[in-house]
Automatic annotation (TrEMBL):
<dbReference type="GO" id="GO:0016301">
    <property type="term" value="F:kinase activity"/>
</dbReference>
<protein>
    <submittedName>
        <fullName>Glucokinase-like ROK family protein</fullName>
    </submittedName>
</protein>
<keyword id="KW-0418">Kinase</keyword>
<dbReference type="InterPro" id="IPR000600">
    <property type="entry name" value="ROK"/>
</dbReference>
<dbReference type="InterPro" id="IPR036388">
    <property type="entry name" value="WH-like_DNA-bd_sf"/>
</dbReference>
<dbReference type="InterPro" id="IPR049874">
    <property type="entry name" value="ROK_cs"/>
</dbReference>
<dbReference type="Pfam" id="PF00480">
    <property type="entry name" value="ROK"/>
</dbReference>
<keyword id="KW-0808">Transferase</keyword>
<dbReference type="InterPro" id="IPR043129">
    <property type="entry name" value="ATPase_NBD"/>
</dbReference>
Length: 390
């Protein structure tokens, strides 16, 4: 199981490369890998570039082991994917939802229907599913697989997602916060090379996935990383959590749209005013487009929002001292000005030692981060609790 786990977290590795992290001799690793290949658990996937001798064979989890299902539920979006054990994406579908208005029964019924449709498209069957990973936008009791007092979706409190999906699949179901899954996806992409970093999702809300010592840190009750409710202005607007000045209420997607609408209606931005008149409402992407066109009001809005997010992140950076801050979510579509404002605020407000080697950038996996993380959760946890038997 240690070899299979290492092969999963180090896609594209050779026998020799797997031996090092496991502490095995080259001969022992070779023998173990040979046995796993014979059992149909690992397979060779082509040779690597020669380093001066015989080219090494690339190893991966055997595609015949089964399939993974990944479900990424956001506040306003639903993405479902079918993946191979090595997280090769076979099929994916995304659509708009609103978990604030639609209860768990409606959303999960749609997710279940999409899972069946995508499996059929891949010519897969329910009994081939090894594990299912589900991401949800709220605090999660990881052991129970349930949301706990989610502020944006109160109807989901203590709802058993596992029980809902149990009738269709024998495979284990693992549920986690959506930003934790983004962090897990980036950890898999990095092959666990970075042990301490954070992923911040900025969309309808603001949340943070924390990777500490090479593992996702969930906290005592599953609410670690709920940074959207850090106050950046005690006299600011009231947040849906009941407090004032939360960064989520002042700098997330809805706040950016609100500021843009006010600027358009006040005649401060002809570009935003034209977009508002044409469609009747604005989106954060409109602010990004206006900013790229040189609109002064749009630039001011993005800089203000980025400054507030950076102010919050400076406190996190000083406390946790991560090597990287990766920004994801819908905010990545607004362009480089927001990222520049976040960086400026973080570096200005953080301690010099905390930022000496800090990198702040958009998350490389982008919109795929959630489903990749859902697949990583499904495979890694299935290996941990059940092995590889579907």
């Amino acid at each position: 199981m240690r070899v299979l786990d290492a092969a999963f977290w180090s896609p594209g590795s050779s026998r020799h490369a797997l031996a090092g992290p496991l502490g095995f001799s080259a001969s022992k690793a070779k023998a173990l890998v040979a046995g796993l290949i014979d059992q149909g658990l690992l397979e060779e996937a082509g040779t690597q570039p020669s380093q001066g001798g015989r080219p090494a064979e690339t190893l991966r989890l055997h595609h015949g082991l089964g399939l993974l299902l990944g479900v990424d539920i956001g506040v306003t979006s639903l993405t479902v994917a079918v993946l191979r054990p090595d997280l090769t994406l076979l099929a994916q579908h995304s659509e708009d939802i609103d978990v604030r208005r639609q209860g768990p029964g409606v959303v999960l019924a749609r997710a279940a229907a999409l899972m069946r449709e995508l499996l059929a498209r891949c010519k897969g069957r329910a009994e081939q599913v090894l594990g299912i990973g589900v991401g949800v936008p709220g605090p999660v009791n990881f052991e129970a697989g349930q949301l706990v007092s989610p502020p944006l979706m109160p109807d989901w409190d203590r709802f058993s997602i596992r029980d809902f999906l149990r009738d269709d699949y024998r495979a284990p179901v693992f549920v986690d916060n959506d930003v934790n899954l983004m962090a897990l996806g980036e950890l898999w992409r990095l092959q666990r090379a970075l042990p301490n970093f954070i992923v911040v999702k900025i969309g309808t809300g603001i949340g943070c996935g924390i990777v500490c010592h090479g593992s996702v840190y969930r906290g005592a009750t599953g609410s670690a990383g709920d940074v959207g409710h850090i106050s950046v202005d005690h006299e600011g607007p009231r947040c849906h959590c009941g407090n004032r000045g939360c960064v989520e209420a002042m700098a997330a997607g809805p706040a950016i749209v609100r500021m843009a609408t006010e600027a358009a209606e006040a005649g401060e931005s002809p570009v935003l005013a034209a977009a508002l008149a044409e469609r009747g409402s604005l989106a954060a992407e409109d602010v990004g487009s206006a900013s790229r066109a040189g609109d002064a009001a749009a630039n001011r809005i993005l800089q203000h929002a980025g400054h507030l997010v950076g102010q919050m992140l400076a406190a996190v950076v000083n406390f946790f001292n991560p090597s990287h801050v990766l920004l994801g979510g819908g905010i990545t579509q607004v362009g480089p000005l927001f990222l520049a404002a976040v960086r400026q605020s973080v570096y200005q407000r953080s301690l010099a030692l905390s930022t000496r080697q800090l990198e702040v950038q958009y998350a490389p996996l982008g919109a795929q981060g959630g489903v990749v993380g859902a697949g990583a959760l499904a495979m890694s946890e299935t290996l941990r609790v059940r092995g590889v038997a579907p």
